[in-house]
Design brief:
- This protein is mostly beta strands.
- The chain contains six helices and 25 strands.
- The strands form seven sheets. The chain has a four-stranded antiparallel β-sheet, with no helix packed on it. Strands 7-10-11-12 form a four-stranded antiparallel β-sheet, with no helix packed on it.
- The longest helix is centred in the N-terminal third of the chain and has 16 residues, at about 40-55.
- The radius of gyration is 22 Å and the shape is globular.
Length: about 425
C-alpha cells in the first residue's frame, strides 16, 4: 500500500472504522502522518454521517450496550452498527487507566459512599470524572482514545478545607467538529471546555427561598485556572435537596431546581445575561417532586424531562409523561411540548433485586419505585428505567418493556450515564 497515491488512500481509509485506522498509524510514518491530517479526518467524518443518515430508527434502537466502568458507574453506550465499537464484542469502553476506582474488577463495593468514584458529566465525546464523590480532583478524558488530563484543584469550599464539599457540578465542551449542509465537515481544533461547581446553599432557614444572585466556580481550559463568578438570575432559583449533576446541551448547562430549571452559559462572561430559569411543565402533577421522580436529558437533539407518578403496588399501572423543550425562532422564548403520556406496568420489587443481595441489610436495596434513568439520544420513544437493581428498556409507543440488565446497587447509589459516541473521537483540549 506504500505505492498507493494519497487520493486512493483517502478513499480507502475514510471507510475504515476509527479504531482500526489508528492501529495502522504504527505501520509507517507516512500512514501516521496521513491519518493525522485534517483533510482525512473530515473525509472520514463525512462518510460516517452519510451512512448514518441511511440508517432507520429501528437499527438505532438496537445498537446500544451496558458498560460498567466501576462498581457504581454504568454507561449506556449508543453506537450504530457502522461504529468503531461492536456492542457484541469484548471491546467495551474502560476507564481503568484512571486507577483502580474505575476498574469494576478492583473497585471495592463496600467502601463508604463518599469514597466511590463518580462521572460528573459527558459532553461531545469527553467525560469529566473524579475518584471520590466528595473530592475535588477532576480528570477530563476521552474513553475511546484513553487520553486524559488532570485539572488543578479548585478553591476550597467556603466552609473550609475540612468540611464536606457539597456542590452541584457540570461539564460542557465545544464539539470537535460540525457537520453542515451537504455533509460539509468543519473541524474545531481549538475546542474549549468548562467545569462548573455550583455550591449547595444548604441553609436550613432559607433553603427554600429563591436566590437572585449566587456564586459559580468555573474552570476554563483556555486559562487553566478556576475563578469565582457572581451571576444574577432575574426570576430567582431554589436548589434541590439532592445533588444532581447538570445536563450539557448546546454549550449550556441545565441544573434541576425545586420548581424550575436553571440554564447557565459558562462561556458567557456577562453576569446578567448568562443565567435564566425555565419553569417545569405546568401540567406536571407534582412539580416539586420532579427532582426525585423525574429525569432531565437530551433526546433527538432537544432537552426532555420525564416523570413517573409511581405506585409501589406491582398490580397498579404507573403514569409516564415526557415533555420536550421547544425554542421559538428567535431562541429567546421556549415552551414545553408533551410528546408522551402512557401507562407503564408495575414491577414486583422482589423480582427486581438480585438474589445474592436479598440477604443484605435493607439500606442496600432501598426501593424508590420505577425511576427514569436515561433517554435514547436518537430514538425518541425509547427510555431506560430502574427499580432496585433491575434496569429496563421501554418503548413508550409500543408499550414494550424488557429487563436488560442488573446493577450492583440501587437508584440511590448506582450512577447511569448515557453517552452518544461521535463519529470521530474528540481530542482532550490542552490546558494552557
Amino acid at each position: 500500500m506504500e505505492n498507493l497515491s494519497d487520493d486512493l488512500l483517502m478513499e480507502i481509509w475514510s471507510r475504515v472504522p476509527y479504531k482500526m485506522t489508528v492501529r495502522c498509524k504504527s505501520v509507517s510514518k507516512r500512514f501516521s502522518a496521513f491519518i493525522s491530517r485534517p483533510e482525512f479526518m473530515s473525509r472520514s467524518i463525512s462518510h460516517y454521517h452519510t451512512l448514518l443518515q441511511h440508517m432507520n430508527q429501528e437499527q438505532h434502537h438496537k445498537e446500544w450496550c451496558l458498560n460498567f466502568v466501576s462498581k457504581r458507574n454504568l454507561l449506556i453506550v449508543f453506537l450504530p452498527k457502522l461504529h468503531l465499537l461492536n456492542p457484541q464484542s469484548q471491546n467495551q469502553l474502560s476507564l481503568s487507566f484512571l486507577g483502580r476506582k474505575f476498574d469494576p474488577k478492583l473497585d471495592d463495593e463496600r467502601k463508604k459512599s463518599a469514597l466511590y468514584s463518580r462521572i460528573v458529566g459527558y459532553s461531545n465525546g469527553l467525560l469529566l470524572c473524579k475518584k471520590t464523590s466528595r473530592g475535588r480532583v477532576y480528570h477530563v478524558t476521552n474513553p475511546m482514545t484513553r487520553e486524559w488530563t488532570k485539572l488543578p484543584l479548585p478553591p476550597p469550599p467556603l466552609t473550609g478545607h475540612n468540611q464536606r464539599d457539597c456542590v452541584f457540578e457540570g461539564f460542557v465542551c465545544e464539539p470537535f467538529y460540525q457537520v453542515e449542509a451537504n455533509n460539509v465537515v468543519t473541524l474545531n481544533s481549538h475546542n474549549r471546555f468548562r467545569v462548573v461547581r455550583f455550591p449547595w446553599l444548604n441553609d436550613r432557614v432559607f433553603s427554600h427561598t429563591p436566590k437572585f444572585e449566587f456564586e459559580m466556580v468555573v474552570f476554563s481550559s483556555e486559562t487553566g485556572q478556576w475563578c469565582r463568578k457572581t451571576v444574577s438570575c432575574p426570576k430567582g432559583f431554589v436548589q434541590t435537596d439532592i445533588l444532581i449533576h447538570a445536563v450539557a446541551h448546546r454549550g449550556r448547562l441545565y441544573f434541576m431546581g425545586r420548581m424550575d430549571l436553571l440554564v447557565y452559559d459558562p462561556f458567557n462572561n456577562d453576569a446578567h445575561q448568562c443565567c435564566h430559569t425555565i419553569d417545569y411543565p405546568i401540567h406536571s402533577p407534582y412539580p416539586r417532586d420532579l427532582p426525585f421522580t423525574g429525569h432531565v436529558g437530551v433526546s433527538c437533539g432537544n432537552i426532555r424531562i420525564a416523570n413517573i407518578s409511581c405506585s409501589f403496588d406491582p398490580h397498579v399501572l404507573n403514569t409516564m409523561t415526557v415533555w420536550e423543550l421547544e425554542y421559538q425562532d428567535d431562541s429567546s422564548c421556549c415552551c414545553w411540548h408533551l410528546v408522551h403520556k402512557t401507562f407503564i406496568p408495575g414491577q414486583d420489587r422482589r423480582s427486581c433485586i438480585r438474589p445474592e443481595f436479598e440477604t443484605r441489610r435493607e439500606c442496600e436495596t432501598v426501593d424508590l419505585g420505577m425511576q427514569v434513568r436515561a433517554f435514547h439520544p436518537h430514538h425518541g420513544d425509547v427510555v431506560f428505567f430502574q427499580r432496585s437493581h433491575s434496569i429496563f428498556c421501554g418503548n413508550l409507543r409500543t408499550n414494550q418493556f424488557d429487563t436488560v440488565g442488573y446493577g450492583i446497587h440501587g437508584f440511590q447509589v448506582l450512577q447511569i450515564i448515557s453517552i452518544d459516541l461521535p463519529g470521530w473521537p474528540a481530542p482532550v483540549p490542552s490546558i494552557t
